[in-house]
Amino acid sequence: MSETNDLPIAYGDIHTDIVQLLENARRAAARSVNALMTASYWEIGRRIVEFEQGGEDRAAYGEALIQRLALDLSNRFGRGFSRQNLQQMRAFYLTWPMDKIRQTVSGISSQKPQTMSAESSPTPIVQTASGQLLTLSNLAEAFPLPWSAYVRLLSVKKPEARGFYETEALRCGWTVRQLDRQINSQFYERTALSKNKVAMLAQAEHAEPDDAITPEQAIKDPFVLEFLNLKDQYSESDLEDALIQHLADFLLELGDDFAFVGRQRRLRLDDTWFRIDLLFFHRRLKCLVVIDLKVGKFSYADAGQMHLYLNYAREHWMKPGENPPVGLILCAAKGAAEAHYALDNLPNKVLAAEYQTVLPNEKLLAEELERSRIELEARRLLGSKNEGEA
């Protein structure tokens, strides 16, 4: 009998523990390396910007500098230092400037014991206005997200929205693909416009895996349709015409996975003709999406009508390999309780979403989101306290 077969049954436990320890260590090492590289990219951006600010002659030389650096750094270090990447590093520094990083690093430093003075640090990078000496390790702590996440955040032009996505990505542990999905779905705007912001922020903590998606995640609520330029008084026909005239903008608001199928799709039941306002197909859900437009407030009767449409679409329009159709009632307003009791536990998936034709003040949106985030954190702390007392 071999020596390995003589080991006690408990060997499986220690083997599992050691494997988990090593895997965690490797992941931590990878995160540390990624953070240090992100810090290095920020520092490269800082040096490029400061070189350009060194005088008129240097400013004019800025683009040539990036081209020359791209060539020389790529020859020495390989991929990752193209002209576009260096421009992103420059933009990275400008978007996360020194004063912002100094505040972040100071906040982190105040929360942990100091084992080495800044003066004795072996890898000084730059001394801040407050006299604190930043190192790559300091900077790495200021950038907890991967570099690809910061590249994606650079595309968010509004500072309030960018800060929101950065905070939520860190709080919820989003992958870069999940962050990209939330940005594309305008999660910031929808959360700010939602009547239950705390619930939406809490739901973001439980994002589905990258390749999984539910109808609730695929369909926004609310929709922002300010591009329609509708007057104060308009009919459902006016709303539908405006959506068709601005179909490209509407598709952008719906999301990348929606494909337009048709409008006013007719169906006949007994001796009565019905018309479906808009019909789309969702590629990831692999199903038809039936949209019914309502200028007024959502009513439980709307759910019954949509249920009829979906039963018909399932029987006559659904093709082999597709999932059952989903219904969306797009309305000007909805009562949470009425929507809950009218839509829950139906045989068909029916959703109701509000639309906004005017964007509210950006500052008010940011303030409401911050209040909601504080409320969510207070609820979490209260829940933890109650669990501890139980």
Q: How much is the radius of gyration in Å?
A: 27 Å
At the third CATH level, what is the topology name of the domain at 218-359? Trna Endonuclease, Chain: A, domain 1
User: Which overall shape is indicated by the principal axes computed on the Cα atoms?
Assistant: globular
Binned strand content: 15-25%
Helix content: 55-70%
**CATH architecture grouping of the domain at 218-359:** 3-Layer(aba) Sandwich
Strand order in the largest sheet: 3-8-7-6-5-4
What is the first-to-last residue Cα distance? 52 Å
The whole-number mean of residue pLDDT values reads: 78
Question: How many runs of DSSP E, i.e. beta strands?
Answer: 8
CATH class placement of the domain at 218-359: Alpha Beta
Account of the protein in words:
Residues 217-369 form the YhcG PDDEXK nuclease domain. Pfam families: DUF1016_N (PF17761), YhcG_C (PF06250). This is Nuclease of restriction endonuclease-like (RecB) superfamily. With 390 residues, this protein is an alpha/beta fold. Among the domains are: 3-98, no CATH class; 218-359, Trna Endonuclease, Chain: A, domain 1. 55% of the residues lie in helices and 15% in strands. The protein contains 17 helices and eight strands. The strands form two sheets. It has a six-stranded mixed β-sheet with strand order 3-8-7-6-5-4, with helices on both faces. The relative contact order is 0.07.
Overview in brief:
Residues 17-190 form the YhcG N-terminal domain. The chain is α/β, with parallel strands linked by helices. The protein has helices at 11-52, 56-60, 62-77, 83-95, 98-109, 136-142, 147-154, 159-172, 176-184, 187-193, 197-204, 215-218, 236-245, 247-254, 300-316, 336-343, 362-389, and strands at 124-127, 133-135, 223-224, 258-269, 272-282, 287-297, 326-333, 349-356.
